[in-house]
Structure to design on (214 residues):
């Protein structure tokens, strides 16, 4: 079943995360009160809606409560950001992310109910969208235009099996370069050692193959 996201605010960060989530296969609804911005996004997402986010009834009518997550991307506009976070949580959205301009606005958004606060200079829209699309991803880094490094939890079907048995390079196009166990990072891997549920893997993968992990 596809994941569904609503992105509120079509600035550069909002556009970036919306288009990447859609490219990765999610259902994406974008919301902004600027009709011109909405028209520009209509071909790149599932649906683009022109409403005032401070209108709670309008948010109810567009089905915000059905989303797996809502991303509030209006760091320069505190009141609409706060209203959007409160409305999304009141409507039962399980995970609400809010973009903050600075630590002060971040603290405010945290206090009104945001589950995660992000700062655009620290977290790119592309990186965040890939984390959202796979709950197994703990960290995500772009090593180059083509290759990413990901820290992820083992999938349920991998647990108790060895790297030799799983042949992850063939099945998922990933190279396991390390396994983390508590504070230790083991780079000398035993291909016959069964994977543990609580030990993340550090892998490299071509960006074109990331969908295989989702």
């Amino acid at each position: 079943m596809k994941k569904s996201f609503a992105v509120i605010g079509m600035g550069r960060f909002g556009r970036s995360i919306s288009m990447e989530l859609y490219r990765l296969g999610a259902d994406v609804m974008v919301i902004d009160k600027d009709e011109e911005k909405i028209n520009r996004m209509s071909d790149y997402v599932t649906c683009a809606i022109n409403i005032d986010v401070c209108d709670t009834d309008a948010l109810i009518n567009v089905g915000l409560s059905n989303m797996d997550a809502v991303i509030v991307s209006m760091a320069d506009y505190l009141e609409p950001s706060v209203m959007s976070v409160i409305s999304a949580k009141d409507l039962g959205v399980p995970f609400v992310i809010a973009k903050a301009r600075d630590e002060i606005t971040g603290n405010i958004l945290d206090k009104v109910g945001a589950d995660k606060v992000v700062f655009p200079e620290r977290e790119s829209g592309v990186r965040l969208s890939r984390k959202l699309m796979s709950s197994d991803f703990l960290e995500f880094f772009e090593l180059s235009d083509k290759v990413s490094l990901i820290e992820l939890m083992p999938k349920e079907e991998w647990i108790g099996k060895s790297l030799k048995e799983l042949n992850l390079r063939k099945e998922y196009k990933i190279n396991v370069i390390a396994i983390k166990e508590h504070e230790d990072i083991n780079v000398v891997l035993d291909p016959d050692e069964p994977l543990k549920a609580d030990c993340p893997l550090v892998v490299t993968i071509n960006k074109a193959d990331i969908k295989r992990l989702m």
